[in-house]
Amino acid sequence: MSATKKKAQKRQYSNLVNNPVLEDYSLRYAPKSFRKWSPWMVFLTGIGGNVAMASYALGGSLTVSFGVINTVWATLCLAVLVFITGTPIAMEIAKNNIDMDLLTRGAGFGYLGSTLTSLIYASFTFIYFALEGAIMGQAITDFFHIPLWLSYLIAALVIIPLVLFGMTALSKFQAWTQPIWLILIVTAIVGVISQDKTAMSSWTHFTGSNHTGSFSPVLFATATGVLLSLLPQIGEQADFLRFMPDKTEKTKKVWMLAVICAGPGWVILAGIQQIIGSFLSANTAVALGLQKATIPAAMFENAFSMVFGSPLTSLTIATFLVLLSQMKINATNAYSGSLSWSNFFSRTLHFHPGRVIWLIFQVIVGLLIMEVGIIDALNTVLGFYSNVAVAWIGAVFADIIINKRILKIGPTYIEFKRAHLYNFNPVGFGSMIIASVLSLATYFGVFGAGLKPYSAFISLLLAIVLTPVIAILTRGKYYIARDSSAYFSNNNVKQHHEIKCVSCGNHYETHDLAFCPFYEGAICSMCCSLESTCHDMCKTQDQEDKSIEKKQIS
């Protein structure tokens, strides 16, 4: 036994980590043995969470602030940008069966460089968890007349059991509740249009608080900047798309359709909901005033009152719809947040107590933000956040499409294992930092008031342009630090064959393993991530150690 191997300690995980249903492969590649869902079920699960009342709140809030015309055009602009940037990301996620964090590592950011994007993504999930929870809490308070702080607590805690068992439970919950949600939404819209013959006219002529009835480039850009904060939603879709089964010739068409619909296709449903929110907001403003026009519960209570007449019945059904919608979307937010925090802390602290622990952490952070009152500053918070978020998505998109496919810079595959990656890749990481700093400076008026509304567009454009520029300047040097695939090919190990991890002793598919000179054997990606005593010797030692990689697998 070598000196290095004597120093290496066998790793043991808690029951929370060793249970694949609870852990849901939060830090690693999703193996073929676990991906038993059909493309159709993955699609239903991925799209099932996109029923957020925040979409109606956004549509209503933007309509009140910027008018109907600018809101509609901003919604359409978001849809186009989501499909352009989200489609290649969704395809890579589904093909490689990895989450957004693992994709980002290999798409120009490096192993530690992607920790920043994990934090950005985690921020996205808890901002929207808090926003959706606040909407749910308001509905609970309005119906049961209990203190708002208590309603927020209930709205947060009720999500934990839904997310505890990961994809296994979420797939059933989202599929079973989707028809009920759809029936109630259609009832509300058809009811308003059929019962109020002036409803469409009230909407199209609604000018909002600023009395804006025509298209304004500045207001359109500002509204779009708020909506662009939704661009990282593709990350939440990726958390489900990673469980897609392998694509075969027989399932190719269904597979592609499911990936597109569950990937960038989320924006179609969200866009429709934003337009509905705009429509309901305008009619609620006429009936109840501007103050109530941006509150989803009030929107639907007003809509159902036209259908059922009875105030109590309308309030009950509206409350049920809000609670159902918010449980569906916040289950997704909490799940994605638990994955993001797992990835973030595993690399920064070399510590992973289990996804369930980070789920509880996500709920606590979201609850604290609710209590602060985030919903009262919705447009401001999202407008600021979008500048950083779109820089990340733009850099990943540019690396996949421009660098890897057009310029052929860097590997054509997505490498996510720590043992094979540089800690930082300036291609994506540098592009995002530069784009974020300049766009935030624009957002705060450093370059003049005229450019301020366009800060999010500047962020996206800069990230897309800088990514290939930096890749050309660095010649793709910082994508791959080493490659230990020879260890497996020399031993004739097939792609989905499972072998034992030399660190923890569990068996994993070869795609999730790398050769480790510290342990002198195959190590799984999670053990590799959590190892703090090796000091990355695999990437710093002399090339003579490559001879070890030719040893036989025991």
Automatic annotation (TrEMBL):
The keyword Transmembrane helix applies. Keywords: Membrane, Transmembrane, Transmembrane helix. The chain crosses the membrane at residues 37-58, 64-87, 108-131, 143-164, 176-194, 214-234, 254-276, 303-324, 356-375, 381-402, 423-448, 454-473. GO terms for cellular component: plasma membrane. The keyword Nuclease does not apply. It comes from the Bacteria. GO terms for molecular function: cytosine transmembrane transporter activity. InterPro entries: CodB (IPR030191). This is Allantoin permease.
